[in-house]
Amino acid sequence: MKSHILPAIRLTFVSLVFFSGIYTLAVWGIAQFAPGGGKGELLTQNGKTYYANIGQSFNSDAYFNSRPSAVSYNAAGSGGSNKGPSNPDYLALVQTRIDTFLAHNPGVKKSDIPADLVTASGSGLDPHISPESALVQVARIAKARNLSESALRDLVRQHTESPLLALFGTKRVHVLKLNLALDEMK
User: Fold this and answer.
1) Are residues 57 and 75 located together in one domain of the fold?
2) What is the mean pLDDT of residues 44-65?
């Protein structure tokens, strides 16, 4: 038994030093290369400041809708739903989101609604949607803002981000940046 206690104490001490000090400093150092120096990316427009790395709620017909949030876009409580895809409560919530989307976007068929417009992300804070999700909303926004649909499609294309290093992830559109650019259009 004595032969096991001393190595266990050493391992505990090494783990404590590594995970409390070295690992923490390494993560902090890497974060300094991220936008905002690891403190989040801030966007300021018309005197208002927004956190770009946290999803925002946009409900007006004049804006592109964000991905739904399971935590009401509260960064302090990041998390998804614990309900499985066959849970009746979850299915009812998704159906409500579909019905709301169809009511605000006449002319769009249920089969044309991308899944990311009616389901929350794992964190509930995803600031991105797919390009398809943005494009399916173009007709509604063009009508609400009296803009041409082709100009809005071009705006979506301009704000479509490629996968990280052209390898990781899929194409995506940052909803906040897109809506701020939309406000700048005349």
Assistant:
1) yes
2) 87
